[in-house]
Design a protein that fits this description.
hydrolase, 5 helices, EC 3.1.1.29, five-stranded mixed sheet, alpha+beta, about 120 residues, peptidyl-tRNA hydrolase activity, Bit1, PTRHD1, PTH2
């Protein structure tokens, strides 16, 4: 069993590919979700451990294809009491990404394991 504590961030790839968002806007969404969930669960034991060693934080950014997929993941996490924050960009009210609070890899891999690492999806 892995004791490595990781924070997973799931980000919609269609925001760039189909809706024309910039890479900077995507990075901002991931930062918003990550910061928010760390604040919401700042008293959690795993969050405290994760933030205790800032030089060695493990964060994994995964790609989800669209809003529907993101909402399905959020619902599955909620059903299974996996703490997370679904980031909804305002004022547009667009769900853009979600971040899990820090967990051991083994504890959450069944919820995030099917998603691939986020890669630049533009053909430049």
């Amino acid at each position: 069993m892995s004791n490595v504590i990781v924070q997973y961030v799931l980000l919609r790839s269609d925001l760039m590919k189909e809706l024309g968002w910039s890479i900077g806007a995507l990075v901002a969404q991931a930062c918003h979700a990550s910061t928010a969930v760390l604040h919401l669960y700042k008293e959690d034991e795993n969050t405290i451990k994760y933030l205790r060693d800032l030089e060695n934080m493990h964060k994994v950014v995964l790609e989800v294809p669209n809003e529907e997929s993101l909402k399905k993941v959020a619902e599955k996490l909620k059903e299974n009491s996996i703490d997370h924050k679904l980031w909804i960009e305002q004022p547009e009210n667009i769900p853009t990404c979600l971040a899990l609070k820090p967990y051991s890899k083994d504890e959450v891999k069944k919820y995030v394991g099917k998603f691939k690492l986020y890669k630049d999806t533009l053909n430049i």
